[in-house]
Amino acid sequence: MTRLSGAARGVVAVLVALLTVTAASATARADADPAAPADFVALRTVDPTILQEMRYFTPHNFVGERIDGYRQPICILTRPAAEALHRAQTNLLSRGYTLKVYDCYRPQRAVNHFVRWAEDLNDETTKGEFYPNVDKTRLFEDGYIAAKSGHSRGSTMDLTIVKLPATPTRPYVPGEPLVPCYAPRQQRFPDNSVDMGTGFDCFDTLAHTLDPRVQGWQRANRILLKTTLEALGFVNLAEEWWHYTFKPEPYPDTYFDFPVSARSLAQRY
Fold first, then answer.
1. 51 beta partners
2. What pLDDT score was predicted for residue 31?
3. How many Cα atoms are found within 13 Å in the side-chain-facing hemisphere of 2?
4. Which among 83, 230, 239, 240 is annotated as catalytic?
5. 199 and which of 37, 77, 149, 181 could share a cystine (Cβ 3.0–4.6 Å)?
6. Residue 202 burial by CB count (10 A; 0-12/13-18/19+): exposed, middle or buried?
7. 154: left (phi over 0), alpha (psi -120 to 50) or beta
8. Burial of residue 169 (number of CB atoms within 10 Å: 0-12, 13-18, 19+)
9. Which long-range contacts (CB under 8 A, 24 or more apart) does 30-34 make?
10. Reduced to 3 states, what is the DSSP secondary structure of residue 233?
């Protein structure tokens, strides 16, 4: 059996100690993340038929990179909101449509990421698609970015309608040419959503749900989403056709910061 010299044993001891400290630090960081309250659920466990295209887990968003706190591409909501979405989905499926969510619960750390991006006036990487007509200095003043978001309370979601049978939306390729989010549907980034007149997260007044310039099938599609959800207790944000909150909210004054991950739901048990 080969014996280690005293110096070698010392080196091994140091390496073991470093590995132990590193592992302990990683565990501590993971354990430090708060868990979701018991009445938060993964939407898939309530309705697996609702499509999920979680944009902030991908670089295809107005920041241009994955957003802090999105560790998995899953929709998490309070149970009452998820069950109400299930009822809306049942209605739409009978008419040949399905819901698709872009975002659901959003941790406060993600909102903080948005704020840091908005304050960096030199970063306009995504301007060509998401805010071509808005000066970045006005994002706070015009209400596109805020320090708090209703999404962090767990009952707000961003969503659209897709005609069945649904064809997948192709992946976004970072660096590809950007087209304004209000361009005609055949020109802007392809989305399997019905035509709502603009893409998701379009920082433009054309994204206002009832903007009078949006007519025809685009307006009809917005109204279909609006009437379906409002009949079940959802309230639309007038400035964003995709933004709905289920009322009454279980947590109207609480802004959570647990990560978007299955572990946030599992570790509470």
1. 100
2. 58
3. 4
4. 240
5. 181
6. buried
7. left
8. middle
9. 30/263, 33/258, 33/259, 33/263, 33/264, 34/256, 34/257, 34/258, 34/264
10. coil
Q: Residue 163 phi/psi, 5° resolution?
A: -75, 135
DSSP SS3 for 101: strand
The pLDDT assigned to 21 comes to 40
Q: What is the DSSP string of 144-180?
A: SS-S--GGGGTSEEEEEEEESSPPPPPPP-TTPPP--
Of all helices (H) and strands (E), which one includes residue 102? strand 97-103
CB burial of 23-42 (b: ≥16 within 10 Å; e: otherwise) equals eeeeeeeeeebebbbeebbb
| Dihedral angle sign, alpha carbons of residues 163, 156, 111, 39 | negative
How high is the pLDDT of residue 267?
Answer: 80
pLDDT digits (tens, 9 = 90+) for 45-65: 999 999 999 999 999 999 999
Q: What is the pLDDT of residue 6?
A: 53
Any idea which residue has 């009322």 for tokens? 247
Q: Tell me, yes or no, if 124 is annotated catalytic.
A: no
- Cα end-to-end span (Å), the chain: 48
Length, in residues, of the chain: 269
DSSP 125-145: TTHHHH-TTS-GGGTTTTTSS
pLDDT category at 15 given cuts 50, 70, 90 is very low
Q: Are residues 141 and 151 in contact, defined by beta-carbon separation less than 8 angstroms?
A: no
**How far is it, in rounded angstroms, from Cα 229 to Cα 87?**
9
pLDDT score for 268: 62
- pTM, entire model: 0.88
Q: Which amino acid is at 159?
A: L
